[in-house]
Amino acid sequence: MDKLYIISQKDQQQANAVSAGIELAKKLNLQPEIAAYSYESFSGDAYYNPRIAAEVRQQILANDRLELEQQLNELQASSTPFNITWCKNLAEHASQHAQPPQYAMMLKSIHASEQFLPADWQLIRHTKVPLMLLSNNPLNKARSILMAIDLGSNKPAKQALNQAVVNQAYRLAEVTGHELHLGFVIRIPKVLRDMDLINSRTLVKEAYDKHQATIEPLGLKREQVHILAGNADMCLFELSCRLKAEYLVMGAAQRQGIMGCVIGNTSEAILAKIRSNVLLVPQPLEN
User: What pTM value is reported for the model?
Assistant: First the structure.
């Protein structure tokens, strides 16, 4: 059975990754595996004395293990396998460990951070399996799934990513019973919209006609297809709220190097405000 890699962090915010991950694993018929990460910077004697530092580290790990065991007992999931890891770079360790085909998905709660390269940002860039990030401010009575795909690209890599997003979204819809919606954003710079140099309504209407051959095989009704014009992250955020989407499924543009640090992408921009759980699908591995 494929595994769901559940990341448990100290000082988790509102979303509880352990309980949510175990529940989702049951729905998706995956084997949950919990990875609890611990790390603290020492000062004083613990900083200068390796023996004291080792003792403090072991005590912290023992406390974390006890807390996790108690949580699993409360969830009646004490048989769930878990590991406690002392690790400063969570994203690097998780990305290297959770690899296909053994793992089918990774899950953690969104973690607000003031760091320049926060763990969530790094996971998006390096994960090789779909990454579920749980919202800390979920919508009430969420009852739909929104999949965001790029209908406007003819590149084989982008089309393969679109299909991977569709596959993940349909699987979630099947196990949850939620209604599935498609969202496509025609990106128009704000300055052009403000200057009324482009007729957004005309662009949207033309897009429906142009991409009908791609949309029709998906089996969605017209009211389940939403084509918008504007800023991608804001459009998807507003659409997910309007649809009361429990999950937003989208592809992750995994740019590397300096350009990856500077440019960013829609999936990263949307995390700060999203109220849906976000399933980020990486580029499929080439056979």
Answer: 0.89
